[in-house]
């Protein structure tokens, strides 16, 4: 079951409401679309996008059902692929409509959330946003595809400058701009009490996340959406305002699932990464479950993945000698991402537990698709390898010092 409420308002300055929304709680499909284009073309674009998602809802829902029955990485990716396909369909239709009806430049943003199998799947194009409210905190799940956001990310602009910029509404990706589109996609496991907010920039431009948190935390059905819209109107309501609040209820979650979700949140790879970025990186990670004695990688075998232990204990051995025991958030196999040489050690499970892996191919594809995030991830890995190298050097130097010490005396 899903509790939800939605509201859209023209605001105080615009004549038309070019935003659109779709709420299909039975299918688990929720979207907000903010249309762009003169002479009411924006309304046409956002309505067309909504219509495409409505039409495809049965397929999306069926894919969610298959994921709920078999929560494998493969099924998770199949949901994301169905979501991507629907985005492509929506963009192609609007692009062709714009060409045919001489409404060139008619486009729309999109933020979509699919809920099913105890997980949320988030997709977005442009600057409409999704937020997650969890543990009394607010996290932005999407990173705007906007010019100012990209300038901030590349260090050419500060957040203060971005907020004041005349160009803050210029988006770099849109549904309908070209025949194909590159949506940002990600998924995460839901925890009890999670609430999600989808909104157009008419809200996020003028209402601070902290204020959203206050309102959403005190949510009574319907009341919070009214209050969120009112908060934007109180700040002048310069744009159309659309909000949609979603609270998945009663997804039966085991304690292990909660532990795993929290562990993934605190993975070292994700340090300093915005939450939105973590969702996307999580997409290329494969989960493994192990029992005592299970061999994760074997000495001498060709490897192409690095692993991070998310739960339990594993032992690293080479030539029959135990080199180390690794626990939560410790990792192995990073070097095979770069050299694809045989493994130098065997790693076997000591206890029951789990690990996540990232393969060299997945990492390379990800870096091509999302260069900004790919860079962040590679930088993190470089730091890890650097630490390892320094530690190894220190050990070598340490050994030499021991030999030299008698001379000093
Ligand atoms: Mn807008």
Provide structural commentary.
With 409 residues, the chain is an alpha+beta fold. It has 2 domains: 3-250, PPM-type phosphatase domain (Phosphatase 2c, domain 1); 286-397, Jelly Rolls (Sandwich). It has helices at residues 41-69, 73-100, 147-153, 159-164, 201-204, 209-217, 223-234, 255-265, 275-282, 336-339, 360-369, 371-408, and strands at 2-9, 19-24, 29-36, 107-108, 110-116, 119-125, 129-134, 137-140, 184-189, 195-199, 241-248, 286-290, 295-297, 305-311, 314-318, 321-326, 331-332, 346-349, 353-359. Strands 2, 3, 4, 5, 6 and 9 form a 6-stranded antiparallel β-sheet that branches. A 5-stranded antiparallel β-sheet has the order 1-11-10-7-8. The chain has a 4-stranded antiparallel β-sheet with strand order 12-19-14-17. A hairpin with a 2-residue loop joins β15 and β16 (321-326). α11 (360-369) packs across α12. The longest helix is centred in the C-terminal third of the chain and has 38 residues, at 371-408. The protein is elongated, with a radius of gyration of 24 Å. Residues 401-409 have low confidence and may be disordered.
């Amino acid at each position: 079951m899903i509790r939800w409420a939605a509201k859209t308002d023209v605001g105080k300055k615009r004549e038309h409401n070019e935003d659109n929304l779709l709420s299909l709680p039975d299918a688990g499909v929720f979207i907000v679309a903010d249309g762009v284009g003169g002479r009411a073309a924006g309304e046409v674009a956002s309505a067309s996008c909504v219509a495409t998602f409505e039409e495809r809802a049965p397929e999306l829902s069926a894919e969610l059902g298959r994921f709920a029955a078999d929560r494998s990485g493969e099924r998770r990716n199949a949901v994301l692929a169905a979501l991507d396909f629907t985005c492509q369909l929506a963009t192609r239709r609007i692009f062709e409509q714009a060409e045919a009806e001489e409404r060139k430049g008619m486009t729309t943003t999109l933020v979509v959330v699919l809920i099913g199998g105890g997980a949320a799947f988030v997709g977005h194009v442009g600057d409409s946003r999704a937020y997650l409210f969890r543990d009394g905190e607010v996290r932005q799940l999407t990173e705007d595809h906007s010019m100012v956001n990209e300038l901030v990310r590349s260090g050419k602009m500060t957040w203060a400058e971005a907020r004041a910029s005349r160009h803050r509404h210029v988006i770099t990706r849109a549904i309908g701009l070209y025949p194909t589109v590159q949506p940002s996609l990600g998924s995460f496991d839901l925890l009890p009490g999670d609430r999600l907010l989808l909104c157009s920039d008419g809200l996020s431009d003028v209402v601070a996340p902290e204020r959203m948190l206050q309102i959403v935390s005190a949510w009574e059905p319907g009341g919070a959406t009214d209050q969120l819209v009112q908060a934007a109107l109180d700040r002048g309501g310069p744009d159309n305002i659309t909000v949609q609040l979603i609270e998945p209820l009663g997804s039966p979650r085991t304690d292990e699932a909660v532990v795993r979700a929290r562990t993934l949140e605190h993975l070292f790879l994700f340090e300093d990464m915005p939450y939105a970025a973590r969702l996307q990186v999580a997409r290329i990670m494969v989960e493994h479950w192990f029992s005592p004695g299970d061999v994760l990688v074997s000495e001498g075998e060709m490897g192409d993945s690095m692993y991070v232990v998310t739960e339990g204990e594993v032992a690293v051995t080479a030539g029959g000698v135990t080199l180390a025991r690794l626990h939560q958030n410790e990792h192995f196999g990073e070097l095979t991402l770069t050299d694809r040489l045989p493994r130098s050690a065997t790693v076997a499970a000591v206890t029951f537990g789990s690990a996540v892996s990232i393969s060299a191919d997945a990492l390379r594809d990800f870096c091509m698709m999302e260069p900004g995030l790919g860079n962040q991830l590679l930088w993190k890995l470089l730091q890890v390898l650097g630490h390892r190298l320094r530690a190894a050097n220190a050990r070598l130097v340490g050994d030499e010092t021991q030999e030299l010490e008698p001379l000093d005396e």
